[in-house]
UniProtKB/TrEMBL annotation:
UniProt signal peptide: none
Sequence ranges assigned to domain SIS in this UniProt record: 29-171, 196-331
Annotated InterPro entries: GlmS/AgaS_SIS, GlmS/FrlB_SIS, SIS_dom, SIS_dom_sf
Highest taxon in the source lineage: Bacteria
Pfam families referenced in this protein's UniProt entry, alphabetically: SIS (PF01380)
Keywords: Repeat
Record-linked CDD domains: SIS_GlmS_GlmD_1, SIS_GlmS_GlmD_2
Protein name in UniProt: SIS domain-containing protein
Length: 347
């Protein structure tokens, strides 16, 4: 029987249609809130933190604003005061009930920031406390590994980028649900999918790498491999990987390399895959078109989307690999050991 995780992967196109349709009309509201903001501060943990990495790259590469990731302990444990005048604080939480994230957003507001919440938790403390709440329309997510709540967060952050003046065409965002629907079918029909799963089932560790707007996808896929398959998965920018950790990639530790077609970092991504295979290791490509596929041992298709929206699709083949790999390893991907849907990290 299909797992709940696989069922929710399949729900992503419709969840994205609802979310994008709901949030695109709010670009003007975001423009007004962000007027004069010189910096964006993202507040998140777990999968939401990986979504924030996408948000950071989108804001810095397309809006001309500085963006950074918050360290919540500065607010909740050190209780430091920072001048956040002119800062837009964006708190991301699937449930909207993670106390650390709610408290950190309140701290940011008290320090002078304007606040935005990105959450699937309608009526949650995070949504109620923010100046603007971007509510995703993923519906209830029952599997512990985030799938549709993660991609709808990316959609909300894409709308946020447009509201901050990103040089993008929002029509690209409207194409995402249909493209993900196609990508799910294409990935499951790919001969390479069972081969990649079979090979990964024989290893204990894997490196997942990308750069630029796709980097958050690499981090998210590594997290899913750890959560649902119990692999020692390391998510790294390929620039950082080449600075030393490349030594861990060998015949027992393959690499998964992700890229967006048309990205300025694609040539480097393909070169990394080639270096991995030349060293005698296996490289599995996701996306990147012929350039990455030609440098990889095996490759899965990516979305036919421009770089700024490609991360919404790039994670999907990875989700399908994780779900199949977990079941191949005899693991129930819906309820990984030691995890709950809402994680309270304390202060």
């Amino acid at each position: 029987m299909p797992s709940r995780m696989r069922h929710e992967i399949g729900e992503q196109p419709e969840a994205l249609r609802r979310t994008i349709g709901s949030l695109l009309p709010r670009i003007g509201e975001l423009e007004k809130l962000a007027a004069g903001a010189r910096q964006v501060l993202f507040v998140a943990r777990g999968s939401s933190d990986n979504a924030a990495v996408y948000g950071r790259y989108l804001v810095e590469s397309r809006t001309g604003r500085l963006a950074s990731l918050a360290a919540p302990s500065v607010a909740t444990t050190y209780r430091s005061r920072i001048d956040l005048d002119g800062v837009l604080a964006v708190a991301i939480s699937q449930s909207g009930r993670t106390e650390e994230i709610v408290e950190t957003m309140a701290w940011a507001r008290d320090c002078g920031a304007r606040t935005v919440a990105v959450t699937n938790g309608h009526g949650s403390p995070l949504a109620e406390a923010a100046d603007v709440a971007l509510l995703t329309e993923a519906g209830e997510e029952l599997a512990v590994p985030a799938t549709k709540t993660y991609t709808t967060q990316l959609a909300a952050l894409a709308v946020l980028g447009a509201g901050l003046g990103a040089d993008v065409d929002t029509a690209d965002l409207a194409r995402v649900p249909d493209e993900i629907e196609r990508l799910i079918e294409a990935t499951e029909a790919a001969e390479e999918l069972p081969l990649i799963v079979a090979e990964l089932a024989r290893v204990q560790g894997v490196v997942v790498s990308a750069r630029g707007l796709a980097f958050g996808t690499a981090l998210e896929l590594a997290l899913k491999l750890k959560e649902a398959c119990y692999l020692h998965a390391m998510g790294l920018s390929y620039a950082d990987l080449l600075h030393g950790p490349i030594a861990v990639v060998d015949e027992r530790t393959p690499a998964i390399v992700l890229g967006a077609a048309g990205s300025p970092v694609l040539a480097g991504t393909a070169a990394l895959a080639a270096r991995v295979t030349e060293a005698g290791a296996r490289a599995y490509g996701i996306g990147g078109g012929p350039a990455l596929a030609g440098s990889s041992s095996l490759a899965l298709p990516g979305p036919a989307l421009p770089e700024w929206t490609a991360p919404l699709g790039l994670i999907v083949p990875g989700q399908l690999v994780v779900e199949r790999l977990a079941r191949a390893l005899g693991i129930n991907p819906d309820v990984p050991r030691g995890l709950n849907k809402v994680t309270q990290t304390g202060v």
